[in-house]
UniProtKB/TrEMBL annotation:
Entry keywords, A to Z: Kinase, Transferase
Pfam families, alphabetized: SKI
Gene Ontology MF, one: kinase activity
Transmembrane parts of this sequence: none
InterPro entries reported for this sequence: Cytidylate_Kinase-2 (IPR052922), P-loop_NTPase (IPR027417), Shikimate/glucono_kinase (IPR031322)
Protein name as it appears in the record: Shikimate kinase
């Protein structure tokens, strides 16, 4: 595992898992939202966004956090592992709600130097992360299940984690293997 994309519906826990995975492997962590969003909630155009992805994934190893289906030809050009965080809808929605409320309460800037923050106004707008989570959950579930079984992607190792316990076990086993390989050298 050298080039890894962690995917999942907003609120699934993919960013938390991807950060922990990057730390465990001592790989750079790349957040696609940070590459995409500009100040004042302005979106990057595809050419600019794809160039940022190419630049960020030029290294020998990394953990990429994010979906952005239209970027697959770029982000998966030489990927070896895709990890799908696939918790149930209720848990995913609860996590998205909890995260949004926490960010609103603390005024947390979502991506450095953008000034982008969640707000109650945004939470209850047509651009709500909660509506996005509900809308995308069934679409992503079907899309990612199809990808896992796509013969043209057989060279990619797909890992599907469906619970917090599975995520923790995966990270623990990874740490154990890393220790064993350090002892062997």
């Amino acid at each position: 595992m050298r080039k890894i994309n962690v995917i999942g519906t907003s609120g699934s826990g993919k960013s938390t898992f991807a950060r922990a995975l990057a730390q465990a492997l001592d790989y750079p962590y790349i957040e696609m939202d940070a590459l995409f969003w500009k100040p004042n909630w302005q979106e990057s155009g595809d050419a600019e966004f794809f160039a940022k992805i190419r630049h960020a994934t030029d290294a020998d190893a990394w953990v990429l956090d994010g979906n952005y289906t239209r970027s697959q030809p770029i982000k998966w050009r030489d990927i070896d592992t895709i990890i799908w965080i696939d918790f149930g809808l209720l848990r995913t929605f609860y996590q998205a709600l909890k995260r949004a409320l926490s960010r609103i309460w603390t005024g947390q800037e979502l991506w450095p130097n953008t000034g982008n923050r969640e707000s109650l106004r945004l939470l209850f707008s047509r651009h709500s992360i909660l509506l996005w989570t509900l809308r995308m959950y069934p679409i992503n579930k079907k899309r990612y299940a199809t990808l896992m079984n796509d013969p043209t992607l057989a060279q990619i190792n797909f890992v599907r984690l469906t619970s917090t316990k599975q995520c923790q076990l995966f990270l623990t086993q990874l740490a154990t293997r890393a220790k064993q390989s350090n002892w062997d050298t």
